[in-house]
Amino acid sequence: MEASRNNLSCTSSRPLLFALNGRRVEIASPDPSMTLLTFLRSHARLTGTKLGCGEGGCGACLVLLASYDPISKQVQESSINSCLALLCSVDGCAITTIEGLGSTQTGFHSIQKRMAGFHASQCGYCTPGMCISLYSTLRNSCGHHSPKPNHASYSEVPTSECSAAPYRDENGDHEPHKPQHVIPTLTSEDAQKAIIGNICRCTGYRPILDACKSFAGDVDVEDLGINSFWPSSREGKIELLPPYSGISDTSFPDFLIKELDYRESGRKTFACDQSAAVNGFSNPGNALDLKVTFRDGDSGVERVWVQTSSLNSVFEALQSDQAKGEAKLVVGNTSSGYYKDENPRILIDIGRIPELLVLKEVSGSLIVGAAVSIGRLIDALEVMISRSTDKNTAPADGSVAHGLASHMRKVANPHVRHRASVGGNLIMAQQFHFDSDLVPLFLAVGATTHIITSGGKSQTLSMEEFLQIGLLQHGWILESITLPLHEYSGWGNTWTDTGSESKQRHPGSKACYFRSYRAAPRNLGNALAHLNAAFFASISHSSNCCTILDLKLAFGAFGGSHAVRVHKVESFLSGKVLSPRTLIEAIDLLKRELQPSLRMSKKASYKLSLAVDYFSSFFSPLLESAFTGTPGIENGLSSNVEGKSNILSQNDEITKERTCFSGKQIVPSLEEDHLIHKAMEKTEARIQAAGEAVYVDDIPSPDQCLFAAFVGCTKAAAKIKKIDPNRALSSVGVIAFISAKDIPEGGANVGAFAFGAFENLFADYFSEYVGHPVGVVVADTTEHAQAAARLVEIEYDVEALPIVCIEDAVAKGSLFSVPPFASKVSIGNVEQGFSEAAYQVSDAEVRTGSQYYFYMETQTALAIPDEDNCIVVYNSCQSTDLLQKSLSTCLGIPHHNVRIITRRVGGGFGGKASRNIVVANACALAAFKLRRPVRMYLDRKTDMFMMGGRHPTKTSYTVGFKSDGKVTGLRAKIFMDGGWSEDLSPFLPIAVTNSLKKYDWGSLDLEYVVCKTNLSSKSAMRGPGHLQGSFIADSIIEHVACTLGLDVHTVITRNMHSLDSASLYFSDADMVGGVQSFTLPIMWNSMLSRMEEKRKEVDIFNAANVWLKKGLSVIPCIYEVEQNSKPAKVSIYHDGSIVVEVGGIELGQGLWTKVKQATVHGLKPLITPGTVASSIKVRVVQADSISLAHGGITSSSTTSEGSCEAVRQACQILVERLLPIKLEKEKGSTSSLAWNDLIHVAQYQQVNLTAHVHWFPRRSTANYLNYGVAATQVEVDTLTGSVKILESNIIYDCGRSINPAVDIGQIEGAFVQGIGFFLTEEIEVNDKGELLNTGTWTYKPPTIDNIPQKFVVEMLNAGTHENRILSSKACGEPPLLLAGSVHSAVKRAIEAARAGACAGEPDSKNGRFFQLDPPASMERVKNLCGLERMEDYLKAKAAVTV
């Protein structure tokens, strides 16, 4: 909770009133600029709702908003992004947070139970948002829109009590009386769509989707994955699932219904009774209105909120002197997620004005009020579709309304669409050239806009005229949009293929044809389009020709200019008979006409190619009908004369919304041994799902707590001439500016610390990179600190252009020193290997890009000064040890004066191993100096600027090989971009080498160069170095196969390690595993066998399809891990309960769960036979650098097993102490001594019930290899470059899993994170060193859009291995490498496209081999398939017809 603000004044026409989890909340003086999320977290102390991105793009902040209409007596419920919604905007609404669903005290909701039971929570940070998404879907599926008034107390409840038990409806008439295990009206597809707008970085989504679809009426129990409700899929029954009963949910409270009904009645009677009053307010006619003036006495800044139901009041507010240039009209405030720098003084809520909420049909046109939400417009269109179906006037999917609704469902995400207004979307497009999806649709249907101002003045403008205005004159507002749908419904019969398309045809000779297009990184939405378009044509059709009568062709999403209609093309085609030659001429004209709109785009060639392909796809069905002499579009155009699928049917297939996912987990039957090898529910999963799990930023702020914000440099590679904080220091609420000058005597300017290398905490004389912090501003609130940080002035002396790439660094000699043992690696004689080769590829090149961590919880810390020159820091970190050492050095105090506490981490992936230290040290330095608590939580943009990520690489290689594909020698020089500081970069070559050794190269010669650039420092990220090395190895093998014309799997098989070669490359037979544990050949052969039939199916598909191509790839992985020492302390309390401390930190990997299992297993000799092992009370607690020293670092996938072994040894000590007592007491007795009785006896005998162990692995067995194989099949749309992952199969050897459910989750999560690296996540910087990907709008971690439609994971049934802890093996990182199968499969699909597998397809002009560097973005894929592929096809058609 943030500190209270002084010197504030507020006048409000009445208190803000709303319900929060069923309880009444009144706020007399609300801040107009405060978001709902800030109120929930900082004032109501409901911290289950999280801040993830602040843009509405991740779903962590979701709440359920319910609004009541006193006229219709209906309630509408929807999930919304509380990070965007303004607090004042929820006046009169009911808000349900995750705390309102269920809790430890009141009982968990069935959603929370199923999320936990399906193992759908790992780090848990995203889980509350997932639950709210699903909750909203369930509520709407059950039709909870007509509330029965309840009897909640009408008295005010303090906001601090808002987390109390949710109100439970006594009657429940509007809720199902009988608990339901499934909801009959909910389909599996709709259930899975519930989380379209949510991001999870841990799980890979499959278990979350299982939890969602478990509620669906059509769910197949066998399709539900591993869970804690039944032991196997064969024994699954729906009845075993926790039932859902809406009767227990928070309903719309009676007090709010009464209030809103009373306001409505007062509004109606006000004209007759001026003296009426509502709750003491003298103006009932305006009781719904709310005006708040909020003034900051220190700064004089005044903010105003105007909420009204009157247009005249809006115009009055706009005409006021203070409003000029300072006012913003808001409905859902969703634009603030994109335009973050907006800071309006006056906010005018227009979301309650009847004239702006109109949604009605008039003479066949649909009039849409500007304040109507996009979601509500979609609902209205679907009603029109349903109504036309009922009247048998058109099939449900055949209306223009269907085409519009289908496209709009891909705009943003459901949570944003619930609040985003149609008018707001158009205004953003008009004023800021926002890449709107709505504008091209409205242009194509001939929409008009109606703008108004005071005095009854109005104008009607075409959509084009509206866009060309650029900015409405002051005082004018958009009132409505008219969609003239009558033009498309007057010809009677209507039909359509799948997709955003509508075609209508007169029974005689005329027809209409409407279709929309969008190509985006995510097909289901939550991503801006690369290009969008919408076309309408009216045609005259005869048996052999098609004449164009009228056209509207609109294109948008140019990335710098608004959408346009191509009038020259329209004019050229109108009246013409469609022919291939005419179409080709029109394409040439189209390209020329679109050039001006694309002049600002970085992807102009790609976008122009998309435009051509959209255009051609639209007209080709009409053209095909002329070729074939068929009746045309009426018969569906299923194929052309060559038997090849035509453009329309292929492209339609791509537009299908795929949300039906399936998975299968094959887990070996392992005999449970006191919880070991059991698929046990994750220990804290339920409290995570309930929002009760406490993360660092959830800890209540101590008294007098301050808030810090970084001041970052805006230039890279620049000398700092002067840092002037004076403007910031004079800002409201600012306490201090802390910089390197404030480091205490004896301390040091130390930030991150790793592997003995320090980096500066603050830049003092030189800015290394854009975002390099020079200090922090400390203020009384986060908002004040962030605002003031922007006022700190930094003057620079620019020396040179920044180094932003590997080539620049090499040219300028900007390199880090690499230890000799890592910089060069040789195995065998490479020159001899080359002499034995029949073929050689020389000086080839392969690159990998960077990847950002995108942990859901950004970097955060809370520092509290303590007595005796000590300090306590709560930090989200992967090593209390490293942070303790670094902070001790920074402050110049002993290690024992620094206490680091970490309970849990909301995702780390290596980004909180060392990169967290700069945040913690900055907070601690400020707290140490000011002697007050200081905390900081980085916004997503700052986190992305400062924290770096995965190392980019560039590899130049020469490889020799024989004619059968056996490689005889490889020489490679690998360049790595380490960013501005060393971190672990000098040691990363070791990991790259280990993964490059996955194949038997015959002989090997590697050299590494680590570059210093003026970019954020690169550090460990999940599978650091290993991922790059594995991809480089696979790329080289593919190059060999392509050169020889061999199947790549054949070449992989030829170069797979034998036990002998693996032992040579990895130097130790035990590391490899010996005959018994060298499982890679078995898994490889098994997977190849399984995929044989699928390979044939892919070949058949590719031969029959022109525009869609499939690819199949199988790859192996070998991953070396190293076990690190770990401490543990096990304490048994006198009541028999147990507390365990370990050095490892819970990141979501299930460490606490496995430790709990290991504890019970270790105490097995003391537990009475027959006792249920899970009844032993074990609690694992937070990592604490004072309570348990030398915790090490949680990394390398081995911390769980190391912690388990330390716990096992501690338990062994306790057993040695307690077992003699147990045996002594049991002498002569027929019964065993119960656990609690044993502890009571031990207490009486003064036995030490605490054991502390620091486990160190044996040098000979510390390192070992992990093996896995993955096969992936993809489908590539060659016209857009989009990739659909059809299926992924994984076989992975993790030994005898300690917890198969946890390990399955790790395997799937790692694989999907790898999909991000290989497909969707791209980091770009400009030549100034500025990062261009700064949030969810521009950086795309995988969502359910990007995961395999079918996901099969098999855990190999491995035997006992005495040198592995509990015979288990690591699984957190190695499966990441297997995602390379996705990238490789994409290459196979591109090869099929370039090879011209079908007659008439465009052949490659660039040779057979090509390099596709990750990520395989849509642009890169389409470039390799051919940007002019469609044009070549049409030209070939034209030549045939001539």
What topology does this entry show?
Layout lengths: L7 E5 L3 E5 L2 E5 L8 H8 L18 E8 L4 E8 L12 E3 L13 H8 L9 H15 L46 H6 L12 H8 L40 H16 L20 E7 L5 E6 L3 H9 L7 E4 L15 E4 L9 E4 L2 E5 L4 H17 L9 H9 L5 H4 L4 H11 L5 H7 L3 E5 L5 E5 H7 L7 E7 L2 H4 L4 E2 L5 E5 L4 E10 L11 E11 L4 E11 L7 E2 L1 H7 L6 H19 L5 H25 L18 H9 L6 E5 L18 H5 L16 E7 L5 E7 L1 H4 L4 E6 L13 E2 L2 E2 L7 E2 L5 E7 L2 H8 L3 E6 L7 H7 L2 E2 L3 H4 E4 L2 H7 L2 E10 L11 E7 L3 E6 L4 H12 L6 E5 L14 H14 L3 E4 L2 H8 L5 E9 L5 E11 L10 H9 L7 E8 L14 H19 L3 H7 L4 H8 L2 H4 L1 H4 L2 H25 L3 E15 L3 E7 L5 E5 L8 H12 L15 E3 L2 E2 ...
Parallel strand pairs: 2-6, 8-10, 9-10, 22-49, 23-37, 35-36, 39-40, 43-44, 48-49
Antiparallel strand pairs: 1-7, 2-3, 4-5, 4-6, 7-8, 11-12, 12-15, 13-14, 13-15, 16-17, 17-18, 18-19, 19-20, 20-21, 23-29, 24-28, 24-30, 25-29, 26-27, 31-40, 32-40, 33-38, 34-35, 34-37, 36-45, 38-39, 41-47, 42-43, 42-46, 47-48
Helix pairs in contact: 2-5, 8-9, 11-13, 15-16, 16-17, 16-42, 17-42, 25-26, 28-29, 29-30, 35-36
Keywords: 2Fe-2S, FAD, Flavoprotein, Iron, Iron-sulfur, Metal-binding, Molybdenum, NAD, Oxidoreductase
Family: Belongs to the xanthine dehydrogenase family.
Cofactor: FAD; [2Fe-2S] cluster; Mo-molybdopterin
